Amino acid sequence: MSDxxxxxxxxxxxxxxxxxxxxxxxxxxxxxxxxKTHPAAAVAEAxxxxxxxxxxxxxQEAAGKFPGLRAxxxxxxxHVIGALQTNKARDAVRLADVIESLDRPKLAAALAxxxxxxxxxxELLVQVNVGEEPQKAGxxxxxxxxxxxxxxxxxxxxxxxxxxxxxxxxxPRPHFAxxxxxxAKRGLAVLSMGMSAxxxxxxxxxxxxxxxxxxxxxxxx
Length: 221
Ligand SMILES: *Cc1c(COP(=O)(O)O)cnc(C)c1O
Description:
Mean pLDDT: 97
CATH class: Alpha Beta
Strand content: 15-25%
Order of helices and strands: HEHEHEHEHEEHEHEHEH
Oligomer: single chain
Radius of gyration: 17 Å
Bound molecules: pyridoxal-5'-phosphate
Number of helices: 9
CATH topology: TIM Barrel
Structural class: alpha/beta
Low-confidence stretches: none
Helix content: 40-55%
Shape: globular
CATH architecture: Alpha-Beta Barrel
Distance between the termini: 23 Å
Number of strands: 9
């Protein structure tokens, strides 16, 4: 087995264990394999090991890697998970099955326009800056409910869930729990939270999608 296949097997096992510990149904947590900075060959290796769902944080990088892979693996699904500039909205809509980083009114408007132009409607997650960190993307906690309403009612966007990246320091669980509560209140089914270092905690708090990069593909250069 290659390192990537072995790493994937181990992560799937840990996801299954964490799901069982949380008394949640088997298979209720999906693994988004984050392949940013790793070549298409690494993604192909993961595909060969049965992985079908991938995450990339830069649209341009994803556009270079994924169209070729999709030709061979039509059931591949791609999530765009990184901060998105409005001038990349159209490329993101063309490429992604899910865009996880909707975080401001200007981007909501740009995505609505891009969806109309492209005739394609990827699902959207609203990213919340749960730690209120000034350098981080995401709508502030206090504005999240109003922003969700505007995305759905003013722009008619297909928002299906929430995403967050808690502060690197400290216990992520209060942040995960806060996001889960907002999702429940708003009737949103998808909760993307948890990365290599904290995905088990995220599963305990209700994550439906965990985004794992380095624990599968190795450290980023
Ligand atoms: C890179 C990245 C990840 C994966 O991080 P790892 O620590 O490598 O698992 C998850 N989510 C987002 C938004 C990322 O940019």
